[in-house]
Amino acid sequence: MPMPSAQRTIPCGKTKLRPVVAGLCTAVATAALATAPASAAPAVAAIPRPDHIVVVIDENHAQGEIVGSADAPYITGLSRQGANLTASHAITHPSQPNYLALFSGGTQGATSDTCPKKAFTTANLGGEALAANLTFAGYSESMPSDGYTGCTSGDYARKHNPWVDFADVPATSNLTYTSFPTDYTKLPAISFVVPDLQDDMHDGTVAQGDTWLHDNLDGYVQWAKTHNSVFLLTFDEDDNGPDNLIPTIITGAGVTTGTYTEDVNHYNVLRTIEDAYGLPHAGQSASATPITDIWS
Description:
Distance between the termini: 58 Å
Order of helices and strands: HEHHEEHHEEEEEHEEEEH
CATH topology: Alkaline Phosphatase, subunit A
Number of domains: 1
CATH class: Alpha Beta
Strand order of the largest sheet: 7-4-8-1-9-10-2-11
Shape: globular
Radius of gyration: 25 Å
Low-confidence stretches: 1-44
Strand content: 15-25%
C-alpha cells in the first residue's frame, strides 16, 4: 500500500531525478542544514588593537600568595574584574632573565642579575614598536634620571629594566616614573611600568605593593575600560618554587571577565602584545601561542 504523500520520502542520492524533485531535495537539504545544531566550536575573537597598553611587573611571589590574599585586596579585585590567567608561568630564576624574556622573547644568555656588559642587538618589543612608528616607553620608579644606565641607585635596580639593555631602544624611551602622564591620552601605545624594590614586593611587603598599585595605577585601570585601552599585571617569577606559577591579570576594554586555565608564560604574553599591534615576533614569541580567548 503506498504511503500517504505527507510521509513519502524522496531519494536524494545518486539517482537521476526529475528537475522538480531535484529542486525539492535541494530545498529540504538546505533547510536541514539551517536547523541542525552547530557542532563546531565558536570562533575565537581576534586580538583587538588597543590605543594604549600598560604592563606592570611585580616581583617574586607565587600566584597563591597574591590572588585571594588578605594582603592584596586590590590585585584580588582586579582578578575578578578581568581575565585571571591561573596557569601563568615565569621562564626561569632569577629576576633579570625573566624581564628579558618578557621583553625580547629570550633570556639573552643572562643567568644572573648582573648588568649586561654591552647592549643587545636582538629583536625586542620596544625596538619593534618604534620601527613600526608606534610609541614606546618604560617607566621605572626611583630611577634617578631619564636615560639612566647605571646598575643600581637607591631602590632602583637596572635588572628590572630590560629596555635599557637593547641598542635600538633610545634613551628617550627610558623614563623615570615621575614622567608617567596623568593625562592618559598622552601615554605611548605600549608602556611598561616597574615599581622600585620597595613597591614591587621584592623588598617591601605584599600589602605595600598592592597599595602602591592601587594608588598609582587604578586611575588608568578604570579609564582604560572605556577608552579602548588595556592594563596587564604580571610578575617576573614566583618565590623560587619549581612550578614558577605567577599572577597574570589582564583588564580593560574588550577583555572578557573570567578565569582562564590554559598554560601561558612570558613568551605567550609577549606574542599577544605583538599580535595586537601587528608587530614581528621576537625570539621565542614566534613559536608561542597568543592569548586569544579572553577577548570579547
